[in-house]
Amino acid sequence: MALLRLSRPILLAAALAAATGCADVEGLRDDGDLGTAHAPRSLWKDIRPEPPGPGQQPGTATAVPGLAKVPDLSMRSVNALAVVRADITAATAADNGTGRLVDPRAIQRLALCTQAVDGGPQCPVRPAVFADVTGNGRDELITALDIDGRVSELRVYTVQDDGTIARVLSRRGVLEGVEVAAEHLAVREPTSNPKKVSISDYVWDPEAGILNLSQLTLDECPGTGDGSTRCPGPSSG
Asked: CA 151, CA 171: separation in Å to the nearest integer?
């Protein structure tokens, strides 16, 4: 009978351990509800986008129509504003107002530019930046058309071996910052999280002849010291 009385607390402890799930050196503990794993749920499985139309095929360089060939193969000898004008005009005509190729307001914004080399003080085209992002020893033209106080059309142009000027990158976005390095172009943009910024890293693809997206990452937005969480742009040094 004594043996039976001693076994009751042992059985009770075992039952409690089984009910709570875990035990450690200090006694029983409850890990709580660990939740239930769920498989991803596909939304709108029967809806697919239409294939891209002519001139909208991704992964190909686009020759800018209406421009003369460049005999010396140097973008530095070309009027940068004329290149942007020709590109935006052609894209607007091909776009038909859909906004897929270029912001519908772009052509009106370009009308603010005068015939001056820099387009005049009201011109929303950013100053040209020249950098070799193809690795062929020749500089490309990097610029942007600011649509409003937030949205911009980023453009990168190169001179192909036959002298044709081609657009090798086109993207619309909120340009928090743009950084360039050898055969790399990084675009920083804000996200829905004010403490995060997205970084799109474009790398030269010699087979496709364009700057292709190679990596998309998130980075922290350090505070500026006044309580703001706005991400600072890249340093100019």
From this structure: 10
